[in-house]
Design a protein that fits this description.
This protein is of the alpha/beta class and 259 residues long. It contains 11 helices and 8 strands. The protein is globular. The structure holds S-adenosylmethionine (SAM).
Length: 259
């Protein structure tokens, strides 16, 4: 399957050649989420990580084969991780059943051909296919919806429903909510549930691809309104309890499909 690729090789709906440059400054693997992924991988020794980016969530105690189409993301991989293969989910260059397990984190919503990519993950893995993603039915519950509805509408449109993922993967599938810790070091939007000031940083927004699909006017309105609500206490009067809430049950889910 021939996919359209951008100048840096990006193969999904976001152009990481444009937005990926500072990804690792804001998006680091959150250890408590990594633990949940590790559990789901079970005793898999060989793991293919698709849409691997800069290597977040790649287990250090397994033999990982990363696949990542964007050169700008591959360039941010730490030297102690395996070199990523330039490839796409839709066309994995491996024989059937090559790996004990397959994983993909924060990526399926970007793929050009979701079903083809899922079938490829299923094909190359003998055991679990583990997917960290968001449930589109839950993304608009976040307070950000009040300030930048366009961004969460974009997210809700992009993320596939869990039922679609489980249906295409087949086998025995579980969908488990992933609690987000207050000091989450992986800066996806909901990670800032109790630290709203952090989203005033344009770099933090750029590390979340949904913000690249909305106009500058949305960024400006968001920043102006949130800053005003932080200064005059409006945000805290509505959501201030979140500043000390240890975890947040947002839209983050982990899907685990075994054949
Ligand atoms: C938000 S980043 C996540 C990166 C990494 N998995 C993480 O958790 O930090 C999404 C990644 O999916 C990759 N991606 C997008 N479309 C893809 C496709 N069709 N096949 C493989 N990877 C793709 C992007 O290049 C990008 O690196």
């Amino acid at each position: 399957m021939d996919l359209e690729r951008r100048a840096d090789g990006s193969a999904g709906d976001a152009d990481y050649g444009q937005i990926g440059g500072a990804y690792t400054r804001y998006r680091r693997p959150e250890p408590r989420i990594a633990d949940q992924i590790l559990q789901a991988l079970g005793d898999a020794r060989t793991v293919v990580n698709v849409g691997a980016g800069a290597g977040s969530y790649e287990p250090r105690d397994r033999e990982v084969t990363p696949v990542e189409p964007s050169a700008s993301m591959r360039a941010q991989r730490p030297a102690n991780l395996a070199t990523a293969i330039d490839g796409t989910a839709e066309n994995l260059p491996f024989a059937d059943g090559t790996f004990d397990a397959a994983m993909t984190t924060f990526s399926v919503h970007q793929w050009s051909e979701l079903h083809a990519g899922l079938r490829e993950l299923r094909r190359v893995a003998r055991g679990p296919v583990v997917i960290l993603t968001c449930d589109p039915a839950l993304v608009r519950r976040f307070w950000l919806y009040e300030y930048a509805p366009e961004v969460l509408d974009t997210e809700a449109r992009r993320y596939p429903a869990p039922g679609e993922l489980t249906r295409v993967l087949g086998g025995a599938t579980t969908v488990t909510p992933v609690p987000i810790p207050l000091d989450c070091v992986d800066g996806f939007n909901e990670a800032y549930y109790g630290r709203p000031e952090a989203l005033l940083d344009p770099g933090a927004r750029q590390a979340n691809s949904a913000w690249s699909f909305v106009d500058d006017a949305v960024h400006d309105r968001f920043a102006t309104t949130l800053r005003r609500h932080l200064d005059d206490g409006t945000w805290d009067s509505r959501y201030g309890d979140l500043r000390t809430q240890p975890t947040y049950d947002g839209s983050l889910i982990l899907i685990n499909s075994t054949p």
